[in-house]
Structures are given as C-alpha cells and as structure tokens.
C-alpha cells in the first residue's frame, strides 16, 4: 500500500510539472505564447489585442518577435521557435503545411478594391525610360523579399493579368524592405511592391514613382494567421482562445479605419476621439518606420472585420505556386487550413 501511495504521489507530481510547462493550464498562471510578425500595419493587430487587454481576457501572455520577411516567420512557426505567426501567405507556408508543420486558421490584410494597400513602384530611371503602367512590367526587374514571397506572387498575378510570358518579370530577392527601398532609390532595380504609406513617402522624397495599386490590379488575400501543428494538437483550447482575442483586435482595426472615411477620421483624430487616439498610439509602438497617427488614418489597410480567410484566394495561390514548381503538386487546401477553425466564421 505504501508503495502504491508513493507511485501515486510521483505521478501526481509529474502531472503538476507537465501542467506547469509548455502549453499546460494552471488555475492562475496565463498560457505564454511566442508570436512572430513583421513591424507593419498588418502585424499591429497583435499589439492592439495586447494593449486593449484581449489576450489577457483569454488568460494568455505573449511575447513578440519581429522578422525581416514573411518566409522566415513561417519557418520559425514550423520549427516551433514560434507558436503563432502573422504574415504573408507564401510558398513556404504551403510547403510547410504540406509536411504537417503548420496550419492557416484566419485572415488578416487583404488587397481590396478601393483601399490603397500596396503600391507598384518604379525607380526614377525606369520612369524616365517610359515604365508608367503595370502592363509595361514585362522585361523589367522587380525587387522581392524572397523567391516565393507575397511580392513574387503579386508579380505573377500581374503577368497573368496582362498575358506576359512566364518569367518575363524578373524577381530580384533582397530579403528585407529596407534593402528594397534602397535598391529602388539608387536605380538598382526597376520596380517593386511597396506598402502604401511608404510608397507615398518615396514619391515625396523623389525616390520612386507609383504606377498602380495591387488592390485595383489583382485583389487577393495577402496575410494570414499561422499556428504550429504542435500547439494545435497539444492545446487546441489555447488556439481557440487566441483566435477569439485576435479577431477582437481585427474588429477594432476594421471599425477604427475601414468603417470611417479618412476625411472624417482626420477630424475625429483632431478632436481626440476615442478609441481612435488610443488605437493609433498603440500601433505607433509597433510599426517601423514609425507612422504618425495622421498617416495611419490616411493610408489604412483593409482588414476583414472578423479576420476571415478568403479560401478562394488561398486556393488560387496554392495552384499558382504549384504551377511555378515552388510547391509540391500533392499539397492540398485541406492540408493548409484547419477547417473547423476557419469555418467558425463564414469566408467571403
């Protein structure tokens, strides 16, 4: 009997230790999650959910890790260096999902007609030589963060729209946006895809010219929420709680910037209207280079109110990457998404 009691005590101690580590839940200790994203407006939804208490309400504590490119975030989630990533949907996402390493569970930034998300920008040299419209990009270089990145996919969609031969827009991988800005400003590349506010800043500084907007040329689902398969398997409840908080952050962004015209919001900002002022102050902690409150209001991204994932767009992306030989043709949409979580909100 004494031996049985000893064994039971050891098992109980082991159980408590397991609950106190990893993703285990205890009564008073919040579950700690490692989050990765880019320091852009799309990633600032994490900061909003943190500053407005949405994560805390779900019993979660978080630490943020900033990355220079989307592909690196997907790799970090797949290797369990991150629990959750908010980033562009890239070839790496599909390949890693095909190997069972991660899942897409929600949407984020979407190129939506009427909203200036990302601009197609050309260098001064290319502009002087007559590159004034996206239909003229064939035969030109286009700076991307990585091969298989969201910028690369956008170039492919432009090629398809204007019936360019495959590969006629030459992607030049530069691995980070600062490198891309420098390459454009010094005429090392002909073109690139640049976040809207930064594109306007480049024009103002005479470092480039906007020749079109992705939202008008080729609308699509750009970023999404990635979850490591380990977290999804070991602690599905935590993922659900995180998703609930994340959607509240997305709703806050949408209500602050997508439901009110910029002109009216500028007046709201000048009047100190809340929570708009609090929202912009929260985002300013996160975005680099820093955007002023006025810039956030003038150049908002489009965020779905419920962080829904546009499955039609995701499927189109998967097919394109497969056609380019960047993703195995055996990878299916069912391997990429977590159906129950994605289906918890109707996709558009």
UniProtKB/TrEMBL annotation:
SUPFAM superfamilies: Periplasmic binding protein-like II (SSF53850). Belongs to the bacterial solute-binding protein SsuA/TauA family. Transmembrane segments: none annotated. Residues 48-251 form the SsuA/THI5-like domain. It comes from Kistimonas scapharcae. Keywords: Signal. It is found in: Periplasm. Its main location: periplasm. This is ABC transporter substrate-binding protein.
């Amino acid at each position: 009997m004494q031996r049985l009691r000893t064994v039971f005590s050891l098992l109980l101690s082991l159980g408590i230790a397991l609950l106190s580590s990893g993703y285990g839940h205890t009564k008073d200790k919040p579950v700690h999650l490692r989050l990765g994203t880019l320091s852009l407006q799309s990633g600032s939804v994490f900061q909003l959910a943190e500053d407005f208490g949405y994560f805390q309400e779900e019993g979660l504590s978080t630490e943020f890790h900033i990355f220079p490119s989307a592909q690196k975030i997907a790799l970090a989630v797949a290797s369990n260096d991150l629990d959750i990533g908010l980033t562009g949907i890239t070839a790496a996402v599909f390949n890693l999902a095909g190997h069972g390493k991660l899942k897409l569970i929600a949407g984020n930034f979407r190129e939506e007609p009427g909203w200036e998300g990302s601009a197609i920008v050309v260098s001064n040299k290319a502009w002087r030589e007559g590159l004034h419209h996206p239909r003229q990009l064939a035969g030109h270089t286009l700076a991307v963060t990585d091969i298989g990145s969201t910028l690369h996919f956008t170039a492919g969609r432009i090629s398809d729209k204007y019936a360019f031969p495959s590969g006629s827009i030459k992607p030049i991988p530069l691995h980070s946006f600062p490198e891309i800005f420098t390459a454009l400003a010094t005429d090392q590349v002909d073109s690139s895809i640049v976040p809207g506010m930064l594109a306007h800043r480049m024009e103002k500084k005479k470092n480039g010219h906007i020749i079109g907007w992705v939202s008008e040329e080729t609308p699509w689902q750009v970023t999404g929420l990635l979850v490591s398969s380990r977290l999804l398997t070991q602690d599905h409840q935590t993922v659900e709680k995180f998703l609930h908080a994340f959607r509240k952050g997305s709703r806050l962004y949408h209500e602050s910037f997508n439901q009110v015209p910029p002109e009216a919001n500028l007046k709201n900002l000048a009047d100190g209207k809340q929570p708009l002022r609090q929202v912009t102050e929260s985002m300013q902690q996160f975005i680099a280079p820093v955007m002023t409150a006025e810039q956030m209001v003038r150049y908002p991204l489009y965020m779905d109110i419920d962080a829904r994932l546009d499955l039609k767009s995701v499927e189109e992306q998967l097919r394109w990457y497969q056609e380019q030989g960047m993703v195995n043709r055996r990878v299916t949409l069912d391997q990429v998404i977590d159906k129950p979580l994605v289906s918890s909100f109707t996709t558009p």
